[in-house]
Every structure is written in C-alpha cells, then in structure tokens.
Write a structure and sequence with these properties.
heterodimer, A: mainly alpha, Helix Hairpins, Four Helix Bundle (Hemerythrin (Met), subunit A), 9 helices, about 70% helix, globular, B: Cytochrome C Oxidase, Chain A, 2 domains, two-stranded antiparallel ribbon, about 0% strand
C-alpha cells in the first residue's frame, strides 16, 4: 500500500516507441535470416537499435535516480518488477527442464518398448513392445541416448545419428579434468564473491566492493570461456552436436540458454562495476547492483539444476 | 503537466506524438482497446470467410490451403490480438482508478508493452501475403504440422509470438507492481474491487506461462532450422512433448482470458442489482483456486493422444474439480441478483447473458472432461461450440458489457440505450444460432478445421453460418454506437453515472480527468 503523499509520473517519452520499433525489426529480421538464403542485415539493424535504445533508457533511469527523482515507492516498483522478471525467466527454464524430464522418464522408455515408471504406467507390455518392434525395431531405451531410434531402424541412412561421447561423469580418476565440475566451482564461487561485494557496499567499504565485484565479473567471463571450450571440445572431439538426437538437443539447449543468461548477468554486473568505479551507489541506495546480483544468484541456482540433471544423474 | 492532453486542435504532430510517446494509463488503455477492436474485426472477418465457405458442402469460395490459414489466423488473432489486449486495455484504464493510484507503476514500460503489439501482429498478418502463405497448422500449432510440414513463414510466426509474449510479460509485471505497490492508503487487499483481484491473479498466470510458450516456440525454431529433435521420435524426441509444453501454457491461458471477464461481471451485476457482491471473499478464494488448478489439468486437452490410464484418470478428476470454484462464482452472481432491485441496462443484459451462456459452456466443458466420452467429442465441432460459448459469450460479452458500463466515465457521454439493447439482442440471438447447432454437428461426428463436410451436416452448417453473419453485423452496430456516443452522445456530468455503482472510479468527475488521484484518496 502507498505511503507517499504524492507520486512521480514521468513525462512523455520517446524511448518505448523506439524500443518497440527495434524489437519489431529484430523479430522480422531474425525470421527472414533463419529462412534459407536469408541475410542477417535487417536483424543487425534491429539489434543495433535495441542496444542503443536500451543504453539510453537505462542511462535515463540511472540519471533520474541520481537526481533523486525516484521516490521510495518507485524504487519498490522497480524491486517488484525485477523479482517478477526473474520469476518469468525461471518459468522459461521450467519449460526446458520439463522437456528433459518428459523425454527421460516417458518418451525414451516408450520408444524402447517399455513401460515408463512402473506403477503409473499400465500400458500392456506386449502393446508397448509391438510399438517398438514395428516403429523402431532394435531401439533400446537408455540415457544418454547414444544410438537414436532412427539409427537403429535405418542404419547409415539415418537423419539423426547419436553422439560418439556424452558429457556424463567420467569416473573419479578423471575427476579433475572434468570441465562441468570446474564450471560449477567457478559459478558457486562467484555467487559468494558477489555476496561479499554486497556486504562491503552496505558497510560503505567502496574499495572492497569494487575489488570483489570485479572478481565476480572476471569469474563470470571465465565461466563463459570454459563453456566455450566445452562446446568446442564437444563438436570437434566428442561428435556431440545439436543434431545428434535428443541428447545433443537437450544438452545444448539447456546449457546454451543458461550460458546466454550468464552472459546477460555478466553484462549487468559489469555495468554495475563500472558504475561503482564512478562512485554511484551508497550504503542504503544500490538497487541497480542488487537487481543484478539477484539475477546472478538466479543464474547460479539454475546451474545447480543443470549440473544435477544434465551432467550428474544420468 | 498542468495542461491537458494534446487534441486534434493542437495539430497533427502534437496529437500523434501524444499517442506515440504517452505514459498516461488512460491513453494507453484507449490504445489497447482500439487496437483490440481492430483485431476483433480482422479476426471476425476471417471467421466470416470460414462460415461463408462452410455455408454449403463442397468448395465454393476459397482453396482448402487458404481455409487452413483462415482457421489458424482466426484463432491466433482473436486470442492474442483481440481478447487479451481488450482486457489489458480495461486493466490500464480501470485499475489505477479503482485502487486510487495516479497511474500504473511503470508508465514507460506500459507504453512499450502496447506498442510491441502492432509490430507483432503486422509480422503475423504479413505472412498471409508471403510465399507459402500464413500459418496453416491451427492456433494450437501442434508439431510436426508446425515444424516438419510447416511453410517457411512459420519463422515469422515464431518471432511474432516471441515479442508478443514479451509484451504480455511486461504488461503483467506492471499490473502486479501497480496492485501491490500503488494502492491508496486504507485500500487493503480484501477491499479491492473484484476486477482488480481477478487481474492480479491473471497477471500472475501470465508471468508464469508466457515464458513456457516462448520455450515451446523456441523448441520449434530449433527443430525447424537447427537440426534438433525435440518433437521428432527418430532422434529420440516426441511430438506429444509439444502438446504437453503447449497446453501447460495453453490451459492457464484460457483462464487468463476468462478471469478478467469474471471480474468485469462481478462489478456490473452488483451495480444493476443495487446490492453489494454476494460472497466477496469466496469470490477471491475461488478465483485463486481456479488459477492454481489451471496449472495441473493441462493434459485434458490430449485425452486421445495416448497416455497411461493413470494419467487420463488424474487429469479427468482434476479437471472436474474446477467446476467447484467456478460453481461458487456462478452461484454468487445469481445470489447477488436475488431479491435485488434489478434494472436491465445494456451492460446488465450482457452480464446476465454471460452468466447463463458461460455456465452452459462450463457444462459442455464438464462433458469434455470425461476421458472416456471425450474420445467421441475430441476435435469435433462439439469442442468448437464449447470454447466459443466460453470465449465469445464469456470473454467477448463481458468485454462488451465493460465498454458500455464504463464508456460514460471515459468520455463523459451516455450511449444510446435503445441501440445498445438492439445490439445485445442481435448478438445474443446471432451467437446462439451460430454455436448451438455446432454442438449437434460435433456429436454427429463433424470434425473441426475441415474445409468441406459430408451432406448429412449441410443443414446445421447453413444455420450456423446465418447466425455468424448476424453476430458479425451486431459488431458493426457496436462500433457505430460507440463512435456515435463519443461524437454525439448526451453529456453526463455526475460522478457516479449509474445509480448503484460503487468504487473509487465513480468518485472522480465524469469524464475522468487526464490525471486522477495525484493525491491519494483515503479509503475507509
């Protein structure tokens, strides 16, 4: 409920309509680009507009805040906005995790002619088996799917061929050379460092804040570097690509979207770091940084889910 | 801010920039409402093409390929372009006034949410004129129809849906922030008007499921262009996975459409019954339970796709449970009217029709929820009839009621009651002539989405088409009545407009000034 005696309502603004135009051009350009023979020109124009207008928009918001135009109520609106935005991002990942669980628990078993989860699947065994024998003869349910149903049924003519290797835990002996573990360590550490930076800022220790936030950004970039390494290794040495059936599909889409979010989070933190160096924020007014750090923690939590369900529990 | 909004008298440039750059919730509400009406007419004209083709058996007017594009675009434009923006428009106009706030919490983002929509729908509609034609896989865009067998233009559809989803999410976050943060002192949650409550819950649903829709179209995009196999069994995926993801979005989506309609009716019926809403708190709890249950019933759209019996049974019983909170609402509306001093102005007529026809649509929904019986009804005109009873007689009727009810407050002029009633009766009769026979067609076995049909279905199809043209004509009358009210309506100057109207929006002058509640009111 409001406790303010009056409100801040911004004047008319040209920003939204330019953003919407940029978004429209971006969407149209992306579609025309992915269609065979398309070119990225329109997409890049849209992207340029979006980058410029976003820069301008946030500059204005920051400037308003620095001039003290944003009252407590508006700040609370920003807090609510950020929290619900993170919730919507979470739901985006829910869709992909849901797809992963569905494929692993149900679809894969059914393709292999088995009942899915015992008690809850009473498909007659012979019907399920016939399904397998007629459609995908020889396919056996396993996770990760190393040999696709297509490959079993059509051999060398198959459109989808499974990967040569997967990303599963390679065993204790090669633990230290297992990249996902290092990625986990890097991201977990960055969650701690961003918290240290936060505490420092609350105690008005600017130097400590700048240092630890800088370390967090560096860890974010390092994570992305490791992930790029992992992808290159997968494509060049493991025969694991987007096109290697459902395992490659879920692996790259889940980790890829997470990586995209890490990139976004790193950019957010980088901007907050630069702002910190310029002397923005105070011990009781630091929402720009807080919002970025919430986002960072969210990205971290998603990684824990990924590490468990994509890498470890196979 | 002291001077009022630019009018045409200030010149075209100023007038246009007022609408393009506005941060005013009333302006943005108006934009949403007009946009939604334009889309309603566009989607309606697609429906007219469908009904004209189905007037007689055999192919008369269009090719089957184009018929498929029409059914698809009709659904998409009506759901995402007409009904949803209409209620967002109402939310923009009314929520700040109902809770005593000066504007929405994030006014610039509010403007952005609106202006994305014209771009999204321009992209979507443009596909009709591209090589390969527009989306032709039904508004539910099941894979592999929408992936393996789709025209190239499906990519425009995908990115159009993406930015439209972004618009919806931003709009909903704005509504949540407004309701949670901008209520006037004393306006506790349990004092909020029902319309505000239903929108708060709807906004939560939107933030939760629009990203899932984005996930679904992203998986499609990857399958189509980048060789993944989410929906292809050959690679280890499953086309049925698409249906699960889609309906996890799709079922909450239908409540997103109907909950604000519940809110509108809960405002109007008490006014014209001159009694407070019966069972206010049970209304709030019922709305919340409907919203919760919308997340756990999605697979009742997929009873025939092949699921374990345990799944079929679970989704059947869970679906039936929704009848309980919905029943609470219907009984509350009826009890509100019981022993009230009723008058039957146009908004009240539409609201009563809403209660009756929505309940009817709810009953056919119960029939459809019976997994065993659904095997007969699935994908027939019975389903088409069912969801048009809840979408048209539900959402569209309540939207029309809302426009008539609040129009005097918005523009300070009273609409022509006679014309409103004439429109109501044409719409009411036309609607029932259109969709009642579709129940019979569906039970007799006519499948939906086909461009042609067997001779035994000829009579009822002709009747249905005649009703559809009648219903379409009623919308022209609606447009005419609204425009005429704005230009020639009889001025209204008292704040409350209606005799029994309660709520903060009826305490401000009529027409509502450009800025209301710059100082928050005290709510007792």
């Amino acid at each position: 409920m409001s406790t303010e005696s009056s409100y801040y309502v911004p004047e008319q603004s040209k920003l939204p309509i330019i953003t919407a135009t940029g978004m429209g051009i971006l969407a149209f350009g992306a579609a025309s680009w992915v269609i065979e023979g398309g070119s990225p020109t329109i997409f890049l124009i849209g992207l340029l507009i979006m980058v410029l207008v976003m820069y301008k928009w946030w500059s204005i918001v920051i400037d308003e805040n620095m001039r003290g135009l944003a009252n407590d109520q508006l700040k609370k609106s920003y807090v609510l906005g950020m929290l619900w935005f993170i919730f919507s991002e979470l739901m985006f990942f829910v869709a992909f995790f849901g797809a992963l669980f569905y494929v692993r628990v149900f679809a894969n078993s059914w393709l292999g002619g088995e009942a899915a989860v015992g008690l809850f699947d009473d498909t007659p065994t012979d019907a399920a088996a016939a399904n397998n024998q007629i459609l995908w003869p020889g396919y056996q349910a396993e996770w990760p799917v190393m040999v696709t149903p297509d490959q079993m049924a059509n051999g060398e003519d198959a459109q989808f061929k499974g990967p040569e290797q997967n990303m599963n835990f390679p065993g204790w002996s090669s633990l230290l050379s297992w990249l996902p573990l290092w990625n986990t360590v890097v991201l977990m550490t960055s969650s701690v460092t961003v918290h240290i930076a936060h505490t420092a800022l609350k105690n008005d220790n600017r130097k400590k804040f700048n240092t630890w936030l800088g370390i967090t950004v560096a860890l974010g970039i390092f994570f992305l570097f490791l992930q790029a390494e992992e992808y290159i290794h997968a494509y060049q040495h493991m025969g694991l690509t987007l096109e290697t059936g459902i395992y490659g599909t879920t692996f790259f889409l889940l980790t890829g979207f997470h990586g995209a979010h890490v990139t976004l989070g790193t950019c957010m933190l980088l901007v907050q770091w630069l702002r910190g160096l310029k002397g923005h924020f105070s011990h009781d007014d630091q929402f720009g940084f807080e919002a970025a750090s919430w986002y960072w923690h969210f990205v971290d939590v998603v990684w824990v889910g990924l590490f468990l369900f994509v890498y470890v529990l196979a | 801010m002291a001077h009022g909004p630019a009018t045409l008298a200030d010149g075209w440039v100023k007038y246009a920039s007022r609408w393009l750059f506005t941060t005013n919730h009333k302006d943005i509400g108006t934009l949403y409402l007009w946009f939604s009406f334009a889309m309603f007419i566009l989607g309606g004209s697609f429906a007219m093409v469908i009904r004209a083709e189905l007037f007689q058996p055999g192919m008369q007017l269009i090719k089957p390929e184009f018929f498929n594009q029409m059914t698809t675009m009709h659904g998409l434009v009506m759901v995402f372009g007409a009904i949803m923006p209409a209620f967002v428009g109402l939310a923009n106009w009314l929520i700040p006034m109902m809770i005593g706030a000066p504007d929405m919490a994030l006014p610039r983002m509010n403007n952005l949410s609106f202006w994305i929509l014209p771009f999204a729908f321009a992209i979507l509609v443009a596909t009709l004129f591209m090589e390969g034609g527009g989306p032709n896989f039904g508004w539910t865009f099941y894979a592999p129809l929408s992936t393996t067998y789709a025209p190239d233009t499906v990519n425009y559809f995908i990115f159009g849906v993406h930015i439209m989803g972004a618009s919806s999410i931003m709009g909903s976050i704005n509504i949540i922030a407004t309701v949670m943060n901008m209520r006037a002192p004393g306006m506790t949650y349990m004092k909020m008007p029902m319309f505000v409550w239903t929108w708060l819950i709807t906004a939560f649903l939107l933030v939760a499921v629009m990203p899932v829709l984005a996930g679904a179209v992203t998986m499609m995009l990857m399958d189509i262009n980048f060789g993944t196999s989410f929906f292809d069994a050959a690679g280890g995926g499953d086309p049925v996975l698409f249906q699960h993801v889609f309906w996890f979005f799709g079922h909450p989506e239908v409540y997103i459409i109907i909950l604000p309609a519940f809110g509108v009716v809960s405002q109007i019926i008490p006014t014209f019954s001159r009694k407070p809403l019966f069972g206010y708190s049970s209304m709030v709890y019922a709305t919340a339970s409907i919203a919760f249950m919308s997340f756990i019933v999605w697979a009742h759209h997929m009873f025939t796709v092949g699921m374990p019996i345990a799944g079929e049974l679970y989704f059947m019983y869970a679906t039936m449970l929704i009848a309980v909170p919905t029943g609470v609402k219907v009984f509350n509306w009826i009890t509100t009217m019981y022993k009230g001093s009723l008058t039957f102005e146009t908004p009240m007529l539409f609201s009563i029709a809403f209660v009756i026809l929505f309940t009817f649509g709810g009953f056919t929904g119960l029939m459809l929820s019976i997994a065993a019986a659904d095997i007969q009804y699935h994908d027939t005109y019975f389903v088409v009839a069912h969801f048009h009873y809840v979408m048209v007689a539900g959402a569209v009727f309540s939207g029309t009621a809302a426009v008539y009810y609040w129009l005097p407050k918005w523009c300070g002029k009273m609409y022509d009651e006679t014309m409103g009633k004439v429109q109501f009766w044409i719409a009411f009769i036309g609607f029932n002539i259109t969709f009642m026979p579709q129940h019979f067609l569906g039970l007799a076995g006519m499948p939906r989405r086909y461009a042609d049909y067997g001779l035994q279905f000829a009579d009822w199809n002709m009747v249905s088409s005649i009703g559809a043209f009648m219903y379409g004509a009623a919308q022209i009358l609606f447009l005419f009545n609204v425009v005429r009210t704005i230009t020639h309506g009889k001025p209204v100057d008292k704040p409350e407009v209606w005799e029994g109207a309660e709520g903060l929006e009826w305490t401000v002058p009529t027409p509502a000034p450009y800025h209301t509640f710059e100082k928050p009111p005290q709510v007792k």
